[in-house]
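Final report, closing paragraph on structural work. Over the funding period we assembled a curated collection of sequence-structure pairs, and we close with a single example.
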Amino acid sequence: MRKKSSQKQPTNKSTDGFIRIISGQFRGRKLPVKDVQGLRPTTDRIKETVFNWLMQDTRDAKVLDCFAGSGGLGFEALSRFARCATFLEMDKSAAGQLTANVNMLKLDNATVNCTDSLHHLKQNPNEQQFDLVFVDPPFRQNLAKPCCDLLIKNNWLSEQAVIYVEVESELNNLDLPSNWLLLKEKVAGQVLCRLYQLQ
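Its predicted structure, as stored:
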């Protein structure tokens, strides 16, 4: 049992943590996560809801995890037998940890790009389109809408692709592409979760 310390803990102590894969071939595995400003891993409770929504859409899907951060959504999809996943993460420390976790899980179907998601999506996808896309940007930076607009503008989505968007709950009037059909919606505290399908 760890003894309680009467001394004040140093404020610069690392608060790196971990995420847990909740189902699939890597169920129960814990993946280290860097303490990076703005990084907000999706909770297990929300992940369980999201992947219940995606039960018929994950296996064999080509996955794009924008603003990947901890990679919790992308790794969960790979655990549930997605065909492949591409992680986009701008922070070098977080991207490095994503790469380390890919190696730890011995995945040969995952790619980590240390890049700004919006900058990356302005490019031509080189005919690689994605079936399942996660858009979970840092809160209150107005990144979700431009990201979704670029997915459509530059043809990143396969026919009838499914897009999961996670934003702050006050963005309930988020103006997303008109050809996206809202399939599911849930508010959990300060988080608004929505699942769309390209029509």
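Confidence is low (pLDDT under 50) at residues 1-14. Helices lie at 44-53, 72-79, 92-104, 117-121, 144-153. We thank the funder for supporting this effort.
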